[in-house]
Design a protein that fits this description.
The chain is an alpha/beta fold. The protein is built from 11 helices and 5 strands; from the N terminus they run H-E-H-E-H-H-H-H-E-H-E-H-H-E-H-H.
Amino acid sequence: MRDDVHSKEFWAGVQKKTTFQKKFEKPDCIVLDSEYCSMGRMIAVKACERGGYTYYDAEKLTSLLKPDERELVERYDKALENMELTAEDLKKDPEFVRVSGLYQQAVRMAIKEGPCLIHECGIKEQIQLEGYQCVSVLFYAMNQQEKRERAKTTAIYKELETAEELDRAIEKEDHRRRIYHNALSEKPWGMKEAYDLCLNTDILGRKKSAELLEMLMTDEEQQEM
């Protein structure tokens, strides 16, 4: 016989069982991965503004580094745009090891400043090893035509005309994000089972996605107020 989940008695009993209780506490850091043109950046920035977290992407993280370190990272990132590499290739590249180490150094510096969201450059396992609480989030979008239209609004791809050209550009951007992550993490980039929360931004839209992301930045007690 099934439990009557509609009854007051059932829910009164649940309240007394620790098996069903999990108190949520806002994390020190939210790691956000997002497919290119899934609106991840603008959603994350809006959620951080409302939730009191500091937003960091690659550019803002590198600003925390020393000038010579920042120059090295920026030069390598630029070269990486034109490299056809796999995650296994990156693992064997001494310069990548140094650059990714600098990124993780910047991540640690960012978290020490207070609660933050790291977009694309954070690795959950590494952050947890530092003793911080971390939640991982994936934003994805299924409507390829809308992703093409968003890609055309960017400065670097505004000259592209055909669907094939735009699809290649989107895949190129996702490939860069994928190989960086996969070279550092045992949990594959973009695989939904690897994340604590996955949001389809096509379905939810910018506003609702930002609201849900903002909820992770709030303690359970504050959410109930």
